[in-house]
Design a protein that fits this description.
Blueprint lengths: L1 E2 L18 E2 L8 H21 L5 H23 L4 H34 L1 H6 L5 H30 L7 H28 L3 H17 L12 H9 L1 H14 L4 H29 L1
Antiparallel strand pairs: 1-2
Helix pairs in contact: 1-5, 2-3, 2-5, 3-5, 3-6, 3-7, 3-9, 5-6, 6-9, 6-10, 9-10
Length: 285
Amino acid sequence: MSTTTVTKSPAGAASPAPVRPVRTDTDGRIGLRANLRHIGALARRNALQIKQDPESMFDAVFMPIIFILLFVYVFGGAISGKGNNDVYVNYVTPGLMAMMGMNIAMGVGVGINDDFKKGVMDRFRTMPIARSSVLIAKIVVELGRMMIATAILLGMGFLLGLSIHTSVLHLLAAIGLSVVFGASLMWIFILLGLSLKSAQAVQGMAMLVLMPLQFGSSIFAPTTTMPGWLETFTDYNPLSNLADAARNLINGGAVAHSVWMTLGWSLAITLVTAPLAVSRFRRKT
């Protein structure tokens, strides 16, 4: 869409040079440097919103504390034996890293849906910015929240007896793998937030996705005791692959298969859902 401004000249005056049309929809025509600048500005805007509303960080701060205490002291004795909670801490903490990413990712879709309800996206529509920069800025800020939640989770894990049997570099690799997979999941929830009519609908649909993936995985318990059909499902469950990869990176063990499977899932999810989300966002605005 373009607009042209026309002004009348006084009689006898020379005709002014024609005004060049200004294109307001420049998605796909913005250079990389300008796009990065837009992403940075929008990410700062989202971060300032969190600063003005600290309660929005409650899930990232308290959820990892509640989850690790709940699962260690409720399921730890039953799975590892009474008095062996420290063994279960080393098992469940890497799995909860995967779970944190998925739960934080759900908030992106809810936030996008809420921004449309508040009319924030109407302001972005009038700006000459890439449509994708709005979505990427959301992901950048949510990745920051995910890192905070992961740090709190690991801190609680160390207090409860978590020990690193490999090295700090392996731990950082496990965190990085969780971040990559969490970023790919955010595109799914962004697409849900753009497609559904209300934040409640986004949350409800997200829970339908989250529950089977979380509890039908190796996050909380070994899969060897599960029925055959469920064990087969967990083998292809991306959360199982991520949990196994993070667990072996921290505790030691073969990691190649789980790492490559997790990276493959992350790439496939992003390639499928990111273009759909950007296209949906462009049509919706």
